[in-house]
Write a structure and sequence with these properties.
The structure holds two protein chains of two kinds. Chain A is built from eleven helices and no strands. Chain A is an all-alpha fold. Chain A has one domain. By secondary structure, chain B is α/β, with parallel strands linked by helices. Chain B has two domains: about 210 residues, Rossmann fold (3-Layer(aba) Sandwich); about 60 residues, Alpha-Beta Plaits (2-Layer Sandwich). In chain B, the strands form three sheets. Chain B has a six-stranded mixed sheet with strand order 5-6-7-3-8-9, with helices on both faces. In chain B, strand 1 and strand 2 form a beta hairpin. In chain B, helix 3 packs parallel to helix 5, helix 4 crosses helix 5 and helix 5 packs parallel to helix 6. Chain B is globular. The chains are: A mainly alpha, B alpha/beta. At the A-B interface, helix 2, helix 4 and helix 5 of A face helix 3 of B.
């Protein structure tokens, strides 16, 4: 492909638009990126230094989940309200290209979060891993952002635009806590431990812990959980997208 | 002969508690400018959303370009749209937005031509959010035109613009019309319809009230306005032939007459010193207001 065909590709153009939008709104982008890093700094590096590797895996999961939920959920809800989404729907832009633009933003945030947090862990937490383990951690978590992208997208299509940040936080923070991302689930009382074992972020963190050698995981079970969760939110997204037809969105 | 850009037959649309459109039959010929006029809530937006396939069709049928359903992708690449709330990403520049929208269409317009036509010289590298209202509307027009569409759908393109900005946008619309594009222009400005349209469709409470040329719509209400300084009293003026209404405005009398010539002849016979005489025909705005006004009681059950 030459550069002319590249600039004529709607998905790449929408990805570029998303990129430009992110770099031109640093007052949104920087706090969103720094929030999970700050959390990891306080908990993983200052308070419980002995668990720097364990907490790297769980807080990176927490960061990736937030990047996916918020870059999809809040922006879709806002663009729905402002009419941008309607303009794109009425244009010949393929739906897949519209979603690709959004997914790019979420995956970029995820990757930056994982890389920056890994660098913090190596520099200040004494975490030492093989190259393949570092790559495995980044790979698992960036791929693992997908179900949370769909969750954000589905929520963005269903909730009211001005309520979106509040509603997402009401889901994001409890989900992170109950999945054992802040405090390991094995320190929970039995009832909460049973709850955690059902939650998708728990299973994504389990895979991250496995690839870094912190704790081995049941890959079949965790992938099944994440897969079902992905399908449910894909269905909710499809229904929500259809539902736009009947509303002002 | 190109097939009509849109043919609607028996189109009705109902929201939970509101009949938005009732049994609309409409044919929009290729190469023509159709103005869709109507007060707020008349059903203009619903009609546009149905034409664009943004809402599912409930009753009736819509065919675009002679063969397609509204949500067909073949149609989308032939249509350019300017919607009321565009929510365009304020952080992108005019040029970046044009590149983005150009990538959606198979055979986009040359950017220099487009910048010329929409009057965007010197604004290409400005972010959309920093443009004035008129500049934003012209940029949105450029996005609608960038795919060289056969059909432009413009929803209230000049609302909120000052007169100079409106004229700039009209020029851009006229340039597209002259190049052969069909245009559907939703507006509540009568002068806009009069200036640009070949056909006017007056929509009220979800029904097509009238469909005709701008001149014919204007002639539906044969009223003349007469302004004059005279020594005659109000009751004498009211007694003149064909007079329907008498008002005192800024030291002159303002009369509304069904036949201006008759009225003026009798007026001058009664007062040969009458001065500052001025007679004007009905503009489309007056015609439109009196049409939608007089018919509304009989169509009330539609709401």
């Amino acid at each position: 492909m030459n550069s002319a065909t590249l600039t004529r590709n709607p998905a790449l153009q929408l990805i570029q638009a998303q990129w430009l939008n992110l770099v031109r709104t640093p007052d949104y982008t920087l706090p969103t990126l720094l929030f999970p890093l700050m959390f990891y700094g306080f908990f993983g590096l200052l308070m419980i230094r002995s668990q720097a590797l364990w907490l790297l895996c769980t807080f990176a999961t927490f960061g990736v989940m937030g990047a996916a939920l918020f870059s999809f959920g809040v922006s879709i809800a806002t663009e729905r309200a402002q009419g941008w989404l309607m303009l794109l729907r009425a244009s010949p832009a393929p739906v897949a290209a519209v979603i690709a633009g959004k997914a790019f933003g979420a995956l970029l945030f995820s990757l930056v979060t994982v890389v920056a947090m890994s660098a913090m862990a190596a520099a200040f937490g004494g975490v030492r891993l093989e190259t393949s383990q570092w790559l495995g951690l980044a790979g698992v978590l960036v791929a693992g952002a997908l179900p949370f992208c769909l969750m954000g997208l589905a929520l963005g299509l269903w909730i009211k635009p001005n309520a979106a940040p509040a509603v997402l936080n009401m889901i994001y923070l409890p989900l992170g806590f109950l999945s054992g991302l802040w405090i390991p689930a094995m320190q929970f009382p039995p009832l909460l431990q049973a709850v955690a074992a059902w939650l998708p972020p728990y299973h994504l963190a389990a895979l991250a812990l496995d690839v870094t050698g912190a704790k081995s995981a049941d890959w079949g079970l965790s992938l099944l959980n994440l897969g079902i969760f992905t399908l449910v939110f894909a269905a909710l997204t499809a229904i929500g997208w259809k539902r736009l037809d009947g509303t002002a969105g | 002969m190109n097939p009509p850009v849109a043919e609607l037959e028996g189109v009705s649309h109902r929201y939970a508690d509101l009949q938005a459109l009732s049994d609309i039959d409409l044919r929009l010929e290729a190469g023509r400018v159709t103005a869709l006029l109507g007060p707020n809530g008349a059903g203009k937006s619903t009609l546009i959303h149905l034409l664009l396939g943004l809402k599912p069709l409930q009753t009736g049928s819509i065919r675009l370009f002679g063969e397609h359903a509204p949500d067909a992708r073949e149609c989308r690449t032939r249509i350019g749209i300017m919607l009321q709330a565009s929510g365009v990403q304020a952080n992108l520049t005019v040029l970046e937005l044009m590149q983005l929208f150009a990538s959606f269409y198979p055979d986009p317009e040359d950017f220099d031509t487009l910048v010329d036509e929409a009057g965007l010289h010197g604004l290409e590298d400005r972010r959309f959010g920093t443009l004035s209202g008129g500049q934003q509307q012209r940029a949105l027009f450029a996005l609608a035109a960038v795919g060289r569409p056969d059909w432009l759908i413009l929803d209230e393109p000049t609302t909120g613009l000052d007169p100079a900005a409106r004229r700039r946008l009209w020029q851009a619309i006229q340039a597209r019309r002259d190049a052969g594009a069909s245009i559907l222009l939703c507006t509540h400005f009568m002068d806009e319809a009069q200036r640009l349209a070949d056909q006017v469709v007056v929509l009220e409470r979800g029904r097509v009230l009238h469909r005709d040329t701008p001149d014919a719509i204007r002639r539906l209400v044969p009223q003349d306005r007469i302004r004059v300084r005279t020594r005659l009293e109000r009751r004498q003026l009211e007694a003149l032939p064909s007079v329907q209404q008498v008002e005192r405005i800024e030291g002159r009398w303002a009369l509304l007459s069904a036949n201006g010539v008759d009225t003026v002849r009798a007026l001058l016979a009664a007062d040969d010193e009458a001065a500052d005489l001025e007679v004007t025909g009905t503009d489309l705005e007056t015609a439109f207001l009196s049409l939608t006004d007089s018919e509304s009681p009989s169509t009330k059950e539609a709401a």
